[in-house]
Amino acid sequence: MNTIIIDGKRTAERVRDKLRTAIEQLKQAGHIPGLAVVLVGENPASQVYVNSKVKACEELGIYSQKWSLPTETSQKELLELIDRLNHDDRIHGILVQSPPPPHIDEAAVVLRIDPRKDVDGFHPVNVAKLVMEDPSGFVPCTPMGCMELLKEYGIETQGKHAVIIGRSMIVGKPMAHLLMGKHANATVTVAHSRTTDLAGLCRTADILVAAVGRPGLVTAQYVKPGAVVLDVGINRVEDSTRPRGYRIVGDVDYAEVAPICRAITPVPGGVGPMTIAMLMANTVKACRAACGVG
Ligand code: NAD
């Protein structure tokens, strides 16, 4: 099969190009989109994510603030910072990098963010708006990026059977709502750790989304020939041939699956680059809404 390799880097660049125009228009009207990124603790992976988000802002001309707080920051101090950012007119989007240290109640932090600045789309108001298909809400960035990839590659979703493996609030659940919604019209099944005959179920999928966190879980026996496969997983596996001692792989056994499917996202370079591009898009959207532009 002539498999289409879905290029997330190129698609993210196209998203950024569109955003550059939107940001220029906002600037001409006297508005600069602003994003605050808050990191508590010293998780090395989180530091990498936070730095890439700040860098993406710089590249697009989005104003950014990076708050790196020590691990021992109290819940009260963190909530006070969020209150300040909620009232800071330069800031249109607030993101608290997950996971915070164990003494921080993440749900309380999410609740404290003004839903109009919740560019991650985790606040219950935005979750409800997603379920209600109210376009004024913010949709979590990774599933939004998956939808953008399907659109960019002209992949038909209407009437198709989509199976999503994973039911997290960040990926699986919002992905299900986007695919079953009136813009996509797919018929959706959500699988999870207690699903029986996962391989058999996945083989019924026209579109298969893997968001689990288990390297190589999805083998060829999970995939119907000609299906479209979106691999959201980001997993580190040991690799002594790499200078870092590891490499990043997805949840899909790419070598086995790619030859039998119609289209597939590689890892890295598939869904990953879309997540930050969508965060930038949500920040611009928040700015436009705050400034009453379009
Ligand atoms: P999570 O741990 O919150 O959820 C994992 C889900 O997988 C759960 O719903 C669980 O029920 C299900 N699951 C676990 N084992 C299973 C099994 N054996 N069979 C079927 N289902 C099983 O994870 P998450 O936050 O949704 O992330 C999932 C993966 O996506 C991770 O690898 C994560 O790093 C990655 N991720 C990537 C991006 C990106 O930008 N590309 C963003 C977010 C998450």
Mind sketching the topology for me?
Layout: E1 4-5, H1 8-28, E2 34-40, H2 44-60, E3 63-69, H3 75-86, E4 93-96, H4 106-112, H5 124-132, H6 141-152, E5 161-165, H7 172-180, E6 187-191, H8 198-202, E7 207-210, E8 228-231, E9 235-238, E10 246-249, H9 254-257, E11 263-264, H10 272-291
Parallel strand pairs: 1-11, 2-3, 2-4, 5-6, 5-7, 7-8, 8-11
Antiparallel strand pairs: 9-10
Helix pairs in contact: 1-10, 2-10, 6-7, 6-10
The structure holds nicotinamide-adenine-dinucleotide (NAD).
From N to C, what is the helix and strand string?
A: EHEHEHEHHHEHEHEEEEHEH
Q: What order do the strands of the largest sheet run in, or round the barrel if closed?
A: 1-11-8-7-5-6
Strand proportion: 15-25%
Structural class: alpha/beta
So what's the overall shape?
A: globular
Distance between the termini: 44 Å
Which consecutive residue ranges, at least 5 long each, have pLDDT under 50? none
**Main sheet specs:** 6 strands, parallel
**What Rg, in angstroms, do the CA atoms define?**
19 Å
Instruction: Give the % helix.
Output: 25-40%
Q: Tell how many strands the DSSP assignment holds.
A: 11
| Overall pLDDT | 97
Describe the structure.
- The relative contact order is 0.17.
- The chain contains ten helices and eleven strands.
- Strands 1-11-8-7-5-6 form a six-stranded parallel β-sheet. A three-stranded parallel β-sheet has the order 3-2-4, sandwiched between helices.
- It is 39% helix and 16% strand.
- With 294 residues, the protein is α/β, with parallel strands linked by helices.
- The termini are far apart.
- α2 packs across α10 (272-291) and α6 (141-152) packs across α10 (272-291).
- Bound molecules: nicotinamide-adenine-dinucleotide.
